[in-house]
Amino acid sequence: MSVSFDQRPMPGSDLRKSSGSMQNRQTFRNTLLLAVLGIVAVGAIKALRAQAPSADPKPPAFEAASVKLNKASNGPKGIRPVGPGGRFTATRLTLRELTRLAYGSPAA
């Protein structure tokens, strides 16, 4: 009894060709993964720098205003300086008039 085997290679059994294809896929995946990680890392560093406190030694300054209703209907109308730093007192002026004076808008 004699047995003969077919010498033709089966599809996908050529290891030299398929391993090269697999290596190319893995290389592509690794390269893509490294590129994405690099982009994410650069974005994270930029975001952290944007949130870092500035090196400005001056502390933040705040301005405050106090507006009180003047119930006296008589007396002079006007503005007078009351101290250092641009502080003033305005008497019998509306808030609209004060805003126009502050921003230099013409009276309507």
Task: Give the helices and strands, then pairings.
Layout: H1 15-51, E1 78-81, E2 88-91, H2 95-103
Antiparallel strand pairs: 1-2
Domain module tally: 2
Encode the helix/strand succession as letters: HEEH
| Percent of residues in helices | 40-55%
In this structure, how is the largest beta sheet organized?
2 strands, antiparallel
Please tell me how large the radius of gyration is: 40 Å
Tally of helical runs: 2
What is the CA-CA span between the terminal residues? 118 Å
Mean pLDDT: 75
Descriptors:
108 residues, mainly alpha, two-stranded antiparallel sheet, 2 helices, 2 strands, rod-shaped
Task: Give a nutshell description of this structure.
The protein is mainly alpha-helical and 108 residues long.
Plain-language structure description:
There is one protein chain. With 108 residues, the chain is mainly α. The protein folds into two domains: 15-55; 64-108, no CATH class. It is 43% helix and 7% strand. The chain has helices at residues 15-51, 95-103; strands spanning 78-81, 88-91. The protein has a two-stranded antiparallel sheet with strand order 1-2. A hairpin with a 6-residue loop joins strand 1 and strand 2 (88-91). The chain is rod-shaped, with a radius of gyration of 40 Å. The termini are far apart. The mean pLDDT is 75.
